[in-house]
């Protein structure tokens, strides 16, 4: 057993962390919050130049063919930076879908563009009932897609989307859609995290291409992998919110002392830390399961997701609280983390869905054992 | 990052399993694993001694001890592999945990050659059972506030005072005792550690009954106990330093041992399948499902946290920040699961129990868990440690830090 990152991994983390802290400052996050479209294209371009977007893409398609562990590091650092970039939709969902489930020509046509940062392929899986294959109601008839996707991140910046829809036999599959096609209508939503432009998409007989490897099981596995990476993104975000609050508690004086010396404050910060570390432990197991293709991936993804959701919600809410009145203002930083936390929660489904995924999985496992 | 056994670890596991197969009986499915380290009666103590002697004989005792002291020089991961494998067998409680996990390593660092020779081998073979006489009625979280006095008389020390919460004192043969030897200096500076023989008539041990109804710890009264100066562990006035070694090893023992302690959250799935809520199987109830899923996520997190600690230790690093959270989160989780198990079991049968039924099981969990939240540093102390040592927050105001103990 070796349950931690190596020195090489730490070096990767340092390099990326430095690059992100140069580009994606909290001042930039505030600007993105004010802008109509929050996409931070400069940071995305810098990530592409550094080779970070192609990290998990095969060398034949312009990537460096690294694995889930390295992607987990990227996810955590992007989460920490609060960069307004589409890590989860593009690298957590669309890229593995194309690479693992697509055709050779789909890979050739899309992966190099993703790695170079010149093409955004987003993921449009979720409908009102969530992202799981059994909740899909969009339909494809004779290679034409009709249906509504309720909340698609970065749709206005993307050229293509990977869309979940039912095939003619009623089975959930994944399709590639050109969302600049006139049959696609986008309406911008007021996302809680305005650094992350989000749209509702309606498809009317839109021409699409099947990703032939996709079926309900493959979609679930894809979501599990994305949930593991999202857990790292959430942990990075929560840890930054914790340290921001810690710094404030060391600086702010009341009753003649630093407020961090009061147990009411100190102990809450300790609780934040404990929830984050618990989430990190579960995320480690998830990263290992994803990297090694272990059959426990879905259980690992569910516990990683549940612990990360809990850590983020507690940390970001208490970060606002411990900042006092200033934490309640638009100009201060804590709400940036609160908003991004909710966005990451929404994009892969709320805790209820993952609790069910966990219990159904364990029940299946028990049945198999008996 | 690799979650599976390395080839060396797999070989170690196979070897352990072979020996256990030949020397112990495998638990059947319904038998619970031995998850406590306290003996309930003299018979259990005798069986524990016998088992320990056989393990020592075959080289499976004190795994992480250096070979020079009869150990196996095993790394922490091998210790955990052994714990996992031994846990599959019906074996007596490990009443030697304090001797081998806490006292032994303290003697290795602070003891004289004579003391090492005298005590280490017999702790390993189980001939001698150790307890730790630290806490007192007025010194728990604030351990450095102890009042038990040791007064020097010629070549002897005369010790008087009272200890409390001493696990296993009623069947221990030996103990290490922290006493105040100089009240004229601030509290951390005037203490010294001693070895005591628990059979000495100057020591009286009275078991304390816990809220679970069991008795695993004791009050210990010490009335003019005379020990030679050779029974001093470490220097005069260096007791705090010695105690910190013991406490550090206690945390280590907890981090490699306890994550698997107590009930498994999956047991609640089984229970919820057998009982009803609102006229349906409880497992079909949304709230029941949500609670159980969250318990599983938290329990897995603690388990994986202990693997992170072991990874740090086996790389020769001090346990990192992750090590401090297991102790904080375990007791509360166990308490909540116990309460929920009672809620579930109680929907059909009320909250009275029959021997061996679900209510008895979960009520015992519930009434045992508060001990996890207090022993070895209360939740509140753990939060202060995390806040100050890990997060670097300003320390508590400590009004007694520079004042002579006698002036407090």
Brief write-up:
Chain A is α+β, with helices and mostly antiparallel strands and 370 residues long. Chain A has 11 helices and 9 strands.
Structure commentary:
The complex is a heterodimer of chains A (370) and B (408). Chain A is an alpha+beta fold and 370 residues long. Among the domains of chain A are: 121-215, Butyryl-CoA Dehydrogenase, subunit A, domain 2 (Beta Barrel), CATH 2.40.110.10; 217-369, Butyryl-CoA Dehydrogenase, subunit A, domain 3 (Up-down Bundle). Chain A is built from eleven helices and nine strands. Chain A has helices at residues 7-23, 26-34, 41-49, 68-81, 87-101, 104-116, 216-251, 263-292, 297-322, 334-347, 351-369, and strands at residues 121-124, 139-141, 144-153, 160-166, 172-178, 184-188, 198-210, 253-254, 257-258. In chain A, strands 1, 2, 3, 4, 5, 6 and 7 form a seven-stranded mixed sheet that branches. Chain A has a two-stranded antiparallel sheet with strand order 8-9. In chain A, a hairpin with a 2-residue loop joins strand 2 (139-141) and strand 3 (144-153). The longest helix of chain A is centred in the middle third of the chain and has 36 residues, at 216-251. Chain A starts with 6 loop residues before the first helix and ends with a helix. The relative contact order of chain A is 0.11. Chain B contains eleven helices and ten strands. In chain B, strand 6 (203-208) and strand 7 form a beta hairpin. In chain B, helix 4 (97-110) packs antiparallel against helix 5. The model of chain B has no long low-confidence stretch (mean pLDDT 91). The radius of gyration of chain B is 22 Å and the shape is globular. The longest helix of chain B has 29 residues, at 286-314. The relative contact order of chain B is 0.09. With 408 residues, chain B is α+β, with helices and mostly antiparallel strands. Chain B folds into three domains: 7-125, Butyryl-Coa Dehydrogenase, subunit A, domain 1 (Orthogonal Bundle); 130-238, Butyryl-CoA Dehydrogenase, subunit A, domain 2 (Beta Barrel); 262-390, Butyryl-CoA Dehydrogenase, subunit A, domain 3 (Up-down Bundle). Chain B has helices at 7-23, 42-57, 76-86, 97-110, 113-125, 239-257, 266-274, 286-314, 323-349, 358-374, 379-390; strands at 130-133, 149-153, 156-167, 174-180, 191-197, 203-208, 217-228, 232-233, 276-277, 280-281. Chain B has a four-stranded mixed sheet. A four-stranded antiparallel sheet of chain B has the order 2-3-7-6, with no helix packed on it. Chain B has a two-stranded antiparallel ribbon with strand order 9-10. The interface between A and B is large, with 53 and 50 residues.
């Amino acid at each position: 057993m070796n349950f931690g990152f190596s020195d090489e991994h730490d070096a990767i983390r340092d390099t990326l962390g430095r690059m992100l802290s140069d580009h994606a400052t909290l001042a930039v996050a505030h600007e993105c919050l004010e802008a109509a479209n929050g996409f931070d294209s400069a940071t995305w371009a810098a990530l592409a130049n550094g080779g970070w977007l192609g990290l998990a893409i095969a060398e034949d398609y312009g990537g460096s063919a690294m694995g889930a562990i390295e992607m987990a590091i990227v996810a955590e650092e992007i989460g920490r930076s609060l960069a307004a970039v589409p890590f989860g939709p593009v690298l957590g969902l669309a890229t593995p879908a194309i690479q693992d489930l697509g055709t050779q020509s789909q890979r050739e046509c899309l992966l190099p563009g993703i790695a170079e940062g010149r093409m955004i392929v987003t993921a449009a899986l979720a409908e009102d009932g969530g992202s799981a294959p059994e909740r899909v109601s969009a339909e494809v008839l004779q290679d034409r897609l009709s249906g509504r996707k309720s909340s698609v991140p970065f749709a206005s910046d993307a050229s293509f989307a990977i869309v979940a829809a039912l095939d003619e036999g009623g089975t959930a599959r994944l399709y590639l859609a050109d969302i600049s096609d006139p049959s696609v209508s986008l309406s911008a939503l007021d996302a809680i995290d305005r650094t992350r432009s989000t749209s509702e998409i309606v498809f009317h007989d839109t021409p699409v291409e099947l990703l032939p490897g996709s079926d309900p099981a493959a979609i679930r596995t894809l979501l599990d992998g994305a949930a593991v990476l999202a857990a790292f993104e959430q942990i990075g975000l929560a840890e930054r919110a914790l340290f921001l609050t810690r710094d404030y508690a060391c600086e702010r004086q009341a009753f003649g002392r630093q407020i961090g010396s009061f147990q009411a404050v100190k102990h809450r910060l300790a609780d934040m830390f404990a929830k984050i570390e618990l989430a990190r432990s579960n995320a480690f197991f998830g990263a290992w399961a994803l990297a090694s293709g272990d059959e426990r991936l879905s259980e690992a993804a569910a516990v990683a997701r549940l612990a990360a959701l809990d850590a983020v919600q507690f940390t970001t809410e208490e970060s606002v609280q411990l900042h006092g009145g200033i934490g309640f203002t638009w100009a201060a930083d804590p709400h940036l983390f609160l908003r991004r936390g909710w966005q990451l929660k929404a994009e892969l489904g709320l805790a209820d869905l993952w609790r069910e995924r966990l219990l159904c999985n364990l029940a299946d496992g028990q049945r198999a054992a008996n | 990052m690799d979650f599976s056994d390395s080839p060396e670890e797999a070989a170690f596991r196979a070897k352990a399993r072979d020996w256990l197969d030949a020397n112990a009986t495998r638990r059947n499915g319904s038998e619970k694993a031995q998850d406590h380290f306290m003996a309930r009666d003299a018979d259990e103590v005798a069986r524990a001694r016998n088992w320990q002697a056989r393990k020592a004989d075959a080289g499976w005792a004190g795994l992480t001890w250096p070979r020079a002291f009869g150990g196996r020089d095993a790394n922490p991961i091998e210790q955990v592999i052994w714990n996992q494998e031994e846990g599959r067998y019906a074996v007596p409680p490990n009443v030697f945990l304090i001797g081998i996990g806490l006292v032994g390593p303290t003697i290795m660092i602070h003891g004289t050659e004579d003391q090492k020779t005298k005590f280490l081998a017999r702790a390993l073979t189980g001939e001698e059972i150790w307890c730790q006489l630290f806490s007192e009625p007025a010194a728990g979280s604030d351990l450095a506030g102890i009042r038990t006095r040791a007064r020097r008389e010629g070549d002897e020390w005369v010790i008087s005072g009272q200890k409390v919460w001493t696990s296993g004192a009623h069947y221990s043969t030996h103990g290490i005792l922290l006493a105040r030897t100089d009240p004229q200096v601030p509290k951390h500076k005037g203490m010294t550690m001693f070895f005591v023989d628990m059979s000495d008539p100057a020591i009286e041990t009275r078991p304390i009954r816990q809220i679970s109804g069991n008795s695993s710890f004791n009050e210990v009264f010490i009335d003019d106990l005379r020990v030679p100066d050779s029974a001093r562990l470490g220097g005069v006035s260096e007791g705090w330093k010695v105690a910190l070694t013991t406490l550090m090893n206690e945390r280590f023992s907890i981090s490699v041992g306890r994550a698997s302690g107590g009930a498994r959250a999956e047991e609640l799935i089984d229970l919820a399948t057998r009982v009803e809520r609102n006229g349906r199987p409880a497992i079909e109830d949304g709230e029941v499902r949500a609670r159980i899923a969250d318990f599983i996520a938290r329990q897995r997190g603690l388990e994986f946290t202990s693997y992170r600690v072991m990874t740090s230790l086996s790389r020769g690093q001090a346990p990192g920040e992750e090590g401090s959270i297991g102790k904080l989160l375990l007791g509360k989780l166990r308490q909540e699961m116990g309460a929920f198990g009672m809620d579930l079991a109680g929907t059909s049968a009320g909250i009275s129990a029959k021997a061996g039924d679900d209510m008895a099981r979960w009520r015992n969990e519930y009434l045992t868990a508060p001990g996890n939240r207090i022993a070895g540093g209360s939740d509140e102390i753990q939060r202060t440690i995390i806040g100050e040592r890990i997060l670097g927050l300003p320390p508590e105001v400590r009004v007694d830090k520079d004042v002579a103990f006698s002036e407090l």
